[in-house]
Amino acid sequence: MRTDSEVVRQCEELRSQLQSTALKQPLSRMQQLAIGHTSIAGFAAFFERADQEPLGCDDTPIDWEALIDDAVAAAMALSTMGYMAQADEAWLLILKIGQMLDERFTYLRALTHFLGQDHLNSNQQLQLSEEVDRAQELLDDLWPQLQNGWFSKRQHTIVMLCLCHMASYYARQDCLCHAQLLLLQAEELRAQFDERVGKSDIVQITIQTVRFRLDYMRKKRCSSLPRRPSPLRQLDTLVDSVRNYCTVSSVDLGALQLLLADLVRESTECAANRLTEPFTPFTAPRLTWCCSRVWPCGPLRCSSRGSG
Predict the structure, then answer these.
(1) What pLDDT does 109 receive?
(2) How far apart are CA 246 and CA 256, in angstroms?
(3) 40: part of which helix (H) or strand (E)?
(4) How far is CA 283 from CA 266, 279, 289, 290, 296, in A?
(5) In angstroms, rounded to a whole number, what is the distance separating the alpha carbons of residues 59 and 88?
(6) pLDDT over 70 at 78, yes or no
(7) I need a surface site. Which of 35, 143, 281, 298 has the fewest CB within 10 A?
(8) pLDDT at 50
(9) In sequence order, what are the residues at sequence separation of 6 or more whose Cβ sits closer than 8 angstroms to the Cβ of residue 151?
(10) What is the mean pLDDT of residues 198-215?
């Protein structure tokens, strides 16, 4: 069995330092960033060495599940703090680990991070179109099996969120019809689970968010579309869903925090664009009222709601 005594020693020192610091006072934002970035760098170095050297399960026991959980925790922390370059590195590492181990849900969860981005970091070694093709094959195999009782609610959520964010990806490729079909698939799949029916869970909120994006993109490109709810009315529906948010699985709250950060940015763009449209007595008060409802619903406020 290979032993990396120096790495183990450094990890033990870091753990002792964190324990003593946490007892005295909470970690600062910069300390959290440094720890998260250091953790991911350590994971990456370990992964590269493990990939280069032949490791057998019999002689090299590795708790990959624990490693993945820690890597996801670090990636989520970096994402929620807004350090996107470091977060991208973390999620890319998790994606590669999921591929190597054939951990389908780990792979899909990591890919979802990239599917929701408007622009990929140019430094990332990721061929997103190829990954999307691979993910579609996995999803086609997984979603018909979700109701057979073998999978957890957490895994249900990962599959449905991947379908939603894949719809966003196709919308950015101007494949709006395919994006709508993916949303309908996610919606119909969600309706098959009794614990989600009638509740405002993360899947429902994500479906509404992506549908808002699709309709807003269509409206910007063509103003002569059939009458549909206005973007501001859709935002109002979204805000009500967030206020009534209900946690179903362990991955829900983290996904909600990331979704809200994107939603605030997109709602601001929507509101700003409406200011340039012809003024009507109805538009101004409606706009002010909608923005005042969207902005207070940040991650911290929703966290207290969802943790109960």
Answers:
(1) 96
(2) 10
(3) helix 29-52
(4) 18, 7, 10, 10, 21
(5) 33
(6) yes
(7) 281
(8) 61
(9) 145
(10) 91
